[in-house]
Specification:
alpha/beta, Rossmann fold, GMP Synthetase, Chain A, domain 3, five-stranded parallel β-sheet, 18 helices, 26 strands, AMP-dep_synth/lig_dom, (E)-caffeate-CoA ligase activity
């Protein structure tokens, strides 16, 4: 057979932006966004995104320029996931919990041309821009005002914003844009579409660049893996800036979902929104599961809600408590470098016959690769070979597949260290593979505690702590010890009554003695990153300053 070659008809670039066009045709009359008392349809959202993209192009934004967004989960934030790349630009969602110095560094590093700012984050953005050195042009500022206020203005009246600080308002971009704008498609599917900075929990933040191709693939893959049906009702408790909402920002358009946007959330308004809008799906870090499970006002749901969690291994006790309320918890593993969930705990029918505690333990595992990931493995750090599938032998988790990042912006050394010549992306996570082929994370490589020559998994100790009914949150880090080298130190917040001796005895009854914390520090709330991960680097620093532990036997 003669070798056939690709043609322009069968090799057009993949991009998730086409999902919005299809949504306007298929789901045009269906609700796309709900925010307070405002509702849009997919026809509205498609038109508004094209208008914003048109205005960005008219203001001089060109293909490949970086446009940054600093906003909560409001409608404009959702629309910009489409509108910015539809203008040809690269979308840069900024973490709303960062300080002005860090945001300023990111804006300068990315050479951002425009920054769209939630009105409630105005002061933070202005301070970040004020830190630009003389001679360095700051990005043009556009203000995202409260939606109801903006929509109440007559069409002929422009929003009044501080002319010194902001060029115009977001709704001005909508009003002045062309609804028939022929949006700018990627020339090549490897063209960049997003720039996301890592959370910096273990190192300085790095700029992760993803292609149109990778985002298209991970979006379709995530919808399939989670078995999302048509017209889901999705509650945005996951920040959209967190890896672009694990790519469900584009996914909801693909399946005509309803996006329930919340400016900020707590357990009470989560339950309220679930009941009011008949929510079917939501995502979040384990801290959100914990918030739901420990809410004093928690009550069983009228209808089940699918909850996808990731970002850190969820303690099985928290999974159990959340599912008792009617949530169906799914667990996945991903990272900014892969744009979404690429390993998930694919559920087996036979597991439904197991006791609930066993089911919860199984759900706490990360699982197997999703369909779009080519391969996942756990490699021995010394030999570089795959570890035994015994659930005990630890190594570093590595990935390969089409949804991996293009690399780190302006950082070839970090890119080469992460994506090595052997074809693997090294995650920095320590894991094991069980005899059934399912992967389980044991720790971040920097969080493993080496005590008396034994590796202690902080995740395993934390899982035991979460089974204590008095414990609300728990994190375990290494504490220097003259005799053992390191010992576990537990930081705990409570919902009941307990003292250090109670916590240590609880662990001693359930863990090998070398894994038992030698120190327990009680805190009102554990420090977290903007994506809900506990700041272990802060806790490690705190542990260094604690008084030396007393010598004690662990036998």
């Amino acid at each position: 057979m003669n070798l056939l070659k690709p043609t322009s008809a069968n090799s057009c670039p993949l991009t998730p932006l086409t999902f919005l066009e299809r949504a306007a045709t298929v789901y045009g009359d269906c609700t796309s966004i709900v925010f307070n008392n405002t509702t849009f349809t997919w026809a509205h959202t498609h038109r508004r995104c094209r208008q914003v993209a048109s205005s960005l192009a008219r203001l001089g934004i060109r293909r490949g320029d970086v446009v940054s967004v600093l906003a909560y989960n409001v409608p404009a934030m959702y629309e910009l996931q489409f509108a910015v790349p539809m203008s040809g630009a690269v979308l840069n969602n900024l973490n709303t919990r960062l300080d002005a110095r860090t945001i300023s560094v990111m804006l300068r590093h990315s050479e951002s041309k425009m920054l769209l700012v939630d009105v409630h984050l105005r002061a933070l953005a202005l301070e970040a821009v004020s830190r630009f050195p003389p001679g360095t042009p700051p990005p043009v500022l556009v203000l995202i005002r409260d939606l109801e206020e903006s929509l109440s203005l007559p069409p002929t009246v422009e929003s009044r914003v501080n002319e010194v600080d902001f060029l115009m308002s977001y709704e001005d971009l909508v009003k002045k844009g062309n609804s028939n704008f022929d949006w700018i498609r990627p020339i090549n599917e490897w063209d960049p579409i997003t720039l996301n900075y890592t959370s910096g929990t273990t190192s300085a933040p790095k700029g992760v660049v993803h292609s149109h191709r990778a985002i298209f693939i991970i979006t379709v893959d995530s919808l399939m893996d989670w078995s999302v049906p048509k017209n889901p009702v999705y509650l945005w408790t996951l920040p959209m800036f967190h890896s672009n909402g694990w790519s469900f920002t584009w996914g909801m358009a693909a399946f005509g979902g309803t996006n329930i946007c919340l400016h900020k959330f707590n357990a009470d308004n989560i339950f309220s929104a679930v009941d009011r809008h008949k929510v079917t799906h939501m995502c979040g870090a384990p801290v959100v599961l914990n918030m739901i499970a420990n809410s004093p006002n928690a009550k069983p749901l009228k209808n089940p809600v699918h909850f996808l969690t990731g970002g850190a291994p969820p303690p099985s006790a928290v999974v159990l408590r959340t599912e008792s309320l009617g949530f169906i918890v799914s667990h996945g593993f991903g990272m900014t470098e892969v744009a979404g969930v690429v390993v998930s705990c694919a559920w087996k029918e036979k597991w439904n016959r197991l006791p609930v505690t066993d089911r919860a333990s199984l759900k706490a595992r990360q699982g197997v690769r999703t369909l779009a990931l080519t391969e996942v493995n756990v490699l021995d750090p010394e030999s570089g070979l795959g570890v035994k599938h015994d659930g005990l032998t630890q190594g570093e988790i590595v990935l390969k597949g089409p949804c991996l990042m293009l690399g780190y912006l302006k950082d070839p050394l970090a890119t080469a260290m992460c994506m090595k010549d052997n074809g693997w992306l090294y995650t920095g996570d320590v894991g094991v593979i069980h005899p059934d082929g399912y992967l389980e994370i044991k720790d971040r490589s920097k969080d493993v505690i080496i005590s008396g020559g034994e590796n202690v998994s902080s995740v395993e100790v934390e899982s035991v702590l979460y089974t204590n009914p008095a414990v609300h949150e728990a994190a375990v880090v290494a504490r220097q010890d003259k005799f053992w080298g390191e010992t576990p130190c537990a930081f705990v917040s409570l919902i009941g009554k307990a003292n250090s001796e109670d916590i240590i005895k609880f662990c001693r009854d359930r863990l090998p003695h070398y894994m038992v914390p030698t120190k327990v520090v009680f805190m009102e709330e554990l420090p977290k990153t903007a994506t809900g991960k506990i700041k272990k680097f802060w806790l490690r620093d705190m542990a260094k300053n604690l008084s030396p532990p007393k010598e004690r036997s662990r036998i």
